[in-house]
């Protein structure tokens, strides 16, 4: 007997940063949750739009462009922006002004849910032997981390002022595999990322929830005790990469970046001096 297709929870989802490493993964994963995925980036995106996709180039710094981009959308997964440490002026346009434009577009179009790709670099200046959670005072470790802290503040403001709910994902290190010893603690597998974004879209009454995006690794630096209502249950672990990564050259004993959660980001820059 033919199966009746299950109705998808969203008609149209907007994905920013769709050309990036995580955007390419989520562009496909989000198909399960929406009739149409509107994929956007400042850069060229491949492959071209499929049957249930729209592909639209847009610079997040262009306010009118972002407003048009979000028209007819039910929820936004906002990944777009500079994803490493850069000069403040670059970060300002893409991440700070760009995220403001996303929230303004949500407000004007009545969009009630944003999933915001924040970063562990909001708390990168904590030592690796301290357990941090969503209520720990923030310690941004670079301009990039500061921009993500500002994005989280926008989320809090737009929730209390306009009722727009956000789940801010303080993503650890999301790559096909952990690349160094630090990432044994910070790694988020792509499967766990897709599950986290699903929960961030579908969980009810999230207000503004902050959750660390990390797999079920052996030595965790972050507790998600304040995000249990999301139902995020990571299944992967970095442990199978340990033996190989422990053979890499170790950091010098006086290397502060090896003791801080943010790693090399805590010492990046300054730029343009
Ligand atoms: P990525 O750098 O591969 O992708 C970011 C995308 O944003 C790029 O395709 C870029 O073209 C686009 N972009 C940059 N400036 C833009 C602008 N002005 N307008 C429109 N689009 C613009 O980064 P990745 O790894 O895919 O990360 C996605 C998001 O998750 C980023 O916001 C990043 O900060 C965050 N994140 C990622 C982590 C990871 O381990 N991959 C860890 C923590 C946070
Ligand atoms: C991030 O926020 C970056 O976007 C990503 O490229 C990784 O370097 C990650 O943090 C990390 O901390 O490993």
Search tags:
273 residues, alpha/beta, Rossmann fold, 7 strands, 29% helix, 16% strand, globular, binds 1,4-dihydronicotinamide adenine dinucleotide, binds D-galactaro-1,5-lactone, NAD(P)-bd_dom_sf, oxidoreductase
* Biggest sheet layout: 7 strands, parallel
Portion in strands: 15-25%
Low-pLDDT parts are: none
Q: What spatial form do the alpha-carbon principal axes imply?
A: globular
Could you write a compact summary of the structure shown?
This protein is of the alpha/beta class and 273 residues long.
Polypeptide structure, described:
The protein is α/β, with parallel strands linked by helices and about 270 residues long. It has seven helices and seven strands; from the N terminus they run E-H-E-E-H-E-H-E-H-E-H-H-E-H. A seven-stranded parallel β-sheet has the order 3-2-1-4-5-6-7, with helices on both faces. Helix 1 (about 20-30) crosses helix 6. The longest helix has 22 residues, at about 90-110. The protein starts with 9 loop residues before the first strand and ends in a 28-residue tail after the last helix. The mean pLDDT is about 95. The protein binds 1,4-dihydronicotinamide adenine dinucleotide and D-galactaro-1,5-lactone (15L). The site of 1,4-dihydronicotinamide adenine dinucleotide has 24 residues, from helix 1, helix 3 and strand 5. D-galactaro-1,5-lactone binds near residues 84 and 173.
